[in-house]
Specification:
The chain has one helix spanning 12-37, and strands at residues 41-47, 50-52, 55-58, 64-72, 76-80, 85-89, 94-99, 105-111, 119-124. With 125 residues, the chain is an alpha+beta fold. A hairpin with a 4-residue loop joins β5 (76-80) and β6 (85-89).
């Protein structure tokens, strides 16, 4: 039979290997997302140059998510110099910040647009 008419077949294991590799790749990306959903979520509201609540209690030695919502009327900025975190929020915007596990203690934060009225703290227990 001429070479051009010969069909080339791949062994069946190659197809199985490709499917298995694809499934493992999907699982590798899905697991961190699922683990992130298991994190404790703490909520902070910024409104009229004030913080609600001013004290946020978080579990010590545990990664957590802080959801910050700015109800306005102007811009707000969550900032913590000692935790090296900051985010600016326009009115009506909500953002999430992920924090690595904190040792027990108190960590200050503030609204950089309203530093005289918006001082808060995160207490890791």
């Amino acid at each position: 039979m001429p070479h051009s008419l010969v069909q080339h077949r791949q062994p069946a294991w190659r197809g199985f290997a490709a499917i298995t590799a694809g499934a493992l790749l999907i699982a590798a990306f899905a697991l961190p997302a699922m683990a992130a959903d298991d994190m404790p979520t703490i909520h902070l509201l910024m409104k009229d140059g004030r913080l609600f609540p001013e004290t946020l209690e978080v579990p010590a030695n545990t990664k957590f998510r802080l959801t910050v919502k700015n109800e306005g009327p102007g811009a707000a900025e969550f900032e913590s110099l000692e935790l090296r975190k900051e985010t600016v929020l326009a009115p009506g915007v909500t953002r999430s910040l992920v924090f690595h596990p904190l040792k027990p203690g108190t960590y200050k934060f503030f609204d950089d647009f309203h530093p005289e009225t918006a001082q808060g703290r995160i207490v890791a227990k």
